[in-house]
Design a protein that fits this description.
- By secondary structure, this protein is mainly α.
- The chain has one domain (22-130, 168-273).
- The chain has eleven helices and no strands.
- Helix 2 (24-49) crosses helix 3 (57-71) and helix 2 (24-49) packs antiparallel against helix 8.
- It is globular and about 55 Å long.
- The chain starts with 8 loop residues before the first helix and ends in a 7-residue tail after the last helix.
Length: 280
């Protein structure tokens, strides 16, 4: 078990002081990383949404940030789908939710792709117990899958296939490239924070652990508002194998959450408060 009993608000405050006291330029750089991260997300959403209805960059900006704010208290950001759909006419909302799903799945696929390399590296280099498979839960999952297969004709897979085929291959490629660039930015932002805290860890050791952390955190159900808790706990476990202290890891995960979720959510709240859904 990982113990967090020594991690206090005062300690976190001291850690932030270490980062920013003599490195004012650091905050600017980290904010630029956050800007680049969200710029790519906005461009990705504009690319997808414009297949259904041409939107401007500012409209994509508004929809991305407002939906983040609206989804922050829903499990795995489910509320994002409905929030973005409300910006469009009712007849377009199903397709908009489908396009949003494609955008999120592209990011998840990239996370899983890099995460698999991270997990393989971790299992090959560190001794740890693999959790035992719960027989009861496995049987329930198998039963659920059988039910889905049995009722597959009622799910109208043909309509889904038609919808997916309408999307140009060029769009799929563009979305995946944008997702990869986003992933590389925030994973390296994480590594850069470790470096600035004085954590002596080799680049090719840190990156697989960071990949593993995002992979594990992505498959755990959680509320976005508690995302930093999940990532922090997973990161403490993984980086414990290379003797990185808990306080540094909590500092990094907290700062990553503030920069990439909390601050954008505050901007999004402005759009949420002034939002007027389309009624036609």
């Amino acid at each position: 078990m990982v113990s967090n009993q020594l991690l206090t608000a005062e300690q976190l405050k001291n850690q932030f002081s270490i980062l920013f006291l003599n490195n004012g330029w650091l905050l600017i750089f980290l904010l630029l990383c956050t800007d680049a991260n969200w710029l790519l997300e906005i461009v990705k959403w504009k690319t997808l949404a414009s297949l259904e209805k041409k939107i401007t960059f500012f409209e994509a900006f508004e929809q991305s940030f407002a939906s983040l704010t609206a989804s922050i208290i829903t499990p795995n950001r489910i509320g994002e789908y409905g929030a973005k759909a409300l910006f469009f006419e009712s007849e377009k909302r199903k397709n908009i939710m489908g396009l949003n799903l494609i955008g999120n799945l592209s990011q998840l696929v990239v996370t899983i792709f890099f995460g698999c390399f991270g997990i393989i590296y971790f299992l090959m280099n560190y001794s740890t117990e693999i959790p035992k498979i719960n027989t009861q839960n496995s049987l329930i999952l198998m039963l659920f899958l059988l039910i889905l297969i049995y009722f597959r004709k009622k799910i109208k897979l043909s309509k889904i296939k038609t919808f997916l085929n309408k999307i140009p291959k060029k769009t799929y490629v563009t979305v995946v490239i944008l997702a990869i660039l986003r992933y590389l930015i925030f994973t390296h932002q994480f590594y850069f924070l470790l470096f600035l805290l004085g954590i002596e860890i080799d680049y090719f050791t840190a990156l697989p652990l960071i990949f593993s952390m995002y992979f594990i955190a992505s498959i755990l159900p959680s509320l976005t508002i508690f995302d930093w808790v999940i990532k922090g706990s997973v990161a403490i476990f993984l980086f414990g194998f290379v003797a990185v202290n808990e306080l540094s890891i909590v500092t990094v995960t907290t700062l990553m959450y503030v920069l990439n979720f909390a601050i954008p959510a505050l901007f999004g709240s402005i759009f949420v408060l002034n939002f007027k859904p389309l009624t036609n």
